[in-house]
Every structure is written in C-alpha cells, then in structure tokens.
Design goal:
CATH superfamily: Ribokinase
Strand order of the largest sheet: 5-4-1-8-9-12-13-14-15
Number of strands: 15
Oligomer: single chain
Helix content: 25-40%
Distance between the termini: 49 Å
Radius of gyration: 19 Å
Largest sheet: 9 strands, mixed
Length: about 325
C-alpha cells in the first residue's frame, strides 16, 4: 500500500464523528501482521496484535472499544479494511514510520509455538492517546515486543480508574544465534506493578518476570504487590484468577485446535468487558474461557461466533456445577 493511500484513509478515520458513548475499554498496543505456519507447513497471513483480537472479541460480545496503535507505511490496505470491519473506534490509530510489527508463528505438531520477529514498529507514547479516550474507565496495555515504554504505564495510571497489563511483550527477547523469540524479562516488577490493577500472564511469563522456577513462588512474588487481579492463562489447563488474593480456578472449555494465536488476548479482553458489566470475577472468567475456546477453533481474528454462542457454552457448564465458586 502506498503512503498516500494509507494517509488518506487515516484522515478519513480521524474525521469520522464517532461517539464514545457506551465505550468501556481502551486497548493500547501494536497491530501486527502474523504469519502462521501450521504443522503441515501451510502458511497463512493475518492481521493480528492485541488491539485486533480485542476488537474481534468486542465485536462478538457486541461491545465498543477504542484502540491506540501505530503501524508503518508498509501496512497493507486490506489489513486496514479488515481492522475497520471489526468496528473499533480508530481515533487512536496512527500510521508512522516505515515498518509495522511482523511476527512469524510456527506451530509444532504438539502445539508449541516457535516465534520469530521479522520487523518492529515505532513505540507508542502517551501523547498519542486521544483526549476523548481519557474519560473511559478502563485501559488495557498489550505490548507484544517492547513498543509500550515503561513510563506510559505510570502516565495512564493518572487518568484511568482501572489499568490492565498483559506483560507478554515485556518477557520477549530475540535469540541472536537462532533468531527466534525467547523468554527474557525486560522489566523490573517495581517499575510496573505499583501502577496497575490487573496483570495478565501465562504460566511461563510469570516465572520469567519473577525469575522463579516454580509457579507457586512466582505467584507469591506478584501477589505481594496487592493487585486487584492476577490472571494466569495455562492453555489446556484453563486459567487461575487471583482476586484480592482469593484463588478462582477457571476450566478450559473443550474445543478444536485450529489457530491458537490471539487466544490469550481474547481471554483477557473478554474478561475485562464482562467484569466491567457484572463485577463477577468467576462468571467473567468463564466467559473469557468460552470466548478463547471459540478463538482457538477459528483461523485468524475474524469472529464466526457471536455473543449467544459464548454465553450458551457458559450456561451449559454452569448447569453441571452444584456449588460454583463465588467472587
């Protein structure tokens, strides 16, 4: 896509008179191009990144979100059309620099992902958050590879009632010999945890952040910061939610594995949107798990499922529970 075309579309988006009425959530992070290589060596390319999967699940749940993200002038026109079709408020979308964030995700027959970073985008600064977004109650920070500066976390703390962080982008480094992404913490917990309410990680990321070899030790280290929520996703083992140190176990719903990319993003955004409406951590976790199961069974970020599908799976599960935990 040429720069003039992308710039023209950007201007159109900025001139749209979109209302933030009903918007619950602002999502900040890089929009990416994801190259997915399956065990059969089949290659697919999708628009991705936390804002895209956030927009997809918001659309499925019939919710409104705003996104803050930067892409380069290499961003394809079809990707821009796809982003617009998912329905997020795009006042925080910006085209700047030459390159967008590009990942190659190669999956082994056992489901393990080997990731390579092919290109990076510019960092996102606080000044790029639209003023209108500062009146929304909740912000979710979703870095994928250090595109969110540490100082942005303390800056948003001053404006949002609820600050959520998926720390995956702070646990990634590139192996110089093999070229693929490896787990390596890029932050000090003291730099980030005092400024957030919700931390979302997977079980390997939390051990990486805390330099722990045991999950229990990693959890104890993070809980010492007195977060409102610690959310740990564990793939087929489900998820663990700590709400003010009370543990809530969330099962993984049975599903067909088609494309696991974006499952964690789907989980946390579905959780946030549901919790903001219900203030029920257990129910929100179940909705998140149901949403993630549908995402895993779907190629790319395009939701073929709707709100009723997600909630029906939750209700079916709850009907089998004699004494479900309460939050």
């Amino acid at each position: 896509m040429c720069f003039e075309t992308s710039l023209s579309l950007r201007i159109v988006f900025e001139w749209l008179n979109l209302s933030i009425s009903g918007m619950k959530l602002v999502v900040i992070g890089s929009i990416t191009e994801d190259i997915i290589i399956s065990p059969s060596k089949k290659e697919s390319r999708y628009i991705g990144g936390v804002p895209v999967y956030a927009a997809a699940i918001a659309k499925a749940l019939e919710e409104s979100i705003g996104i803050v993200s930067k892409v380069g002038t290499d961003f394809h026109l079809n990707n821009l059309k796809t982003l617009h079709s998912l329905g997020p408020d795009l006042r925080g979308f910006k085209i700047s620099g030459e390159s967008s964030m590009v990942f190659e995700n190669r999956y082994t027959p056992k489901g393990r992902r080997v990731q390579r970073l092919l290109a990076t985008s510019e960092k996102i600064t606080f000044s790029e958050i639209p003023t209108a977004y500062l009146s929304i109650s909740c912000v979710h920070l979703g870095p994928v590879f250090n595109e969110i500066p540490i100082e942005l976390i303390s800056q948003v703390r001053k404006h949002y009632k609820l600050v959520s962080l998926d720390a995956q982008g702070f646990t990634r480094s590139v192996d110089k010999k093999k070229g693929h992404i490896v787990l390596k913490s890029q932050v000090d917990l003291q730099e980030i945890l005092p400024y957030i309410d919700i931390l979302k990680v997977d079980d390997n990321e939390i051990k990486c952040l805390t330099s722990s070899t045991k999950l229990a030790d990693a959890i104890a280290t993070v809980l010492a910061f007195n977060l409102d929520f610690l959310i740990i996703t564990r793939a087929h083992k489900g998820a663990i939610i700590f709400h003010h140190n009370q543990r809530i176990d969330i099962p993984a719903f049975p599903t067909t594995i088609v494309d696991e990319t974006g499952a964690g993003d789907t989980f946390i955004v579905a959780f946030l949107l549901t919790y903001l409406a219900t203030v029920d951590a257990y129910y929100s976790g179940l909705v998140a798990a149901s949403a993630a199961s549908y995402k895993i069974a779907t190629a790319g970020p395009f939701p073929t499922y709707i709100r009723d599908d997600i909630l029906t799976k939750v209700q079916t599960f709850l009907a089998t529970q004699k004494h479900p935990p309460t939050s």
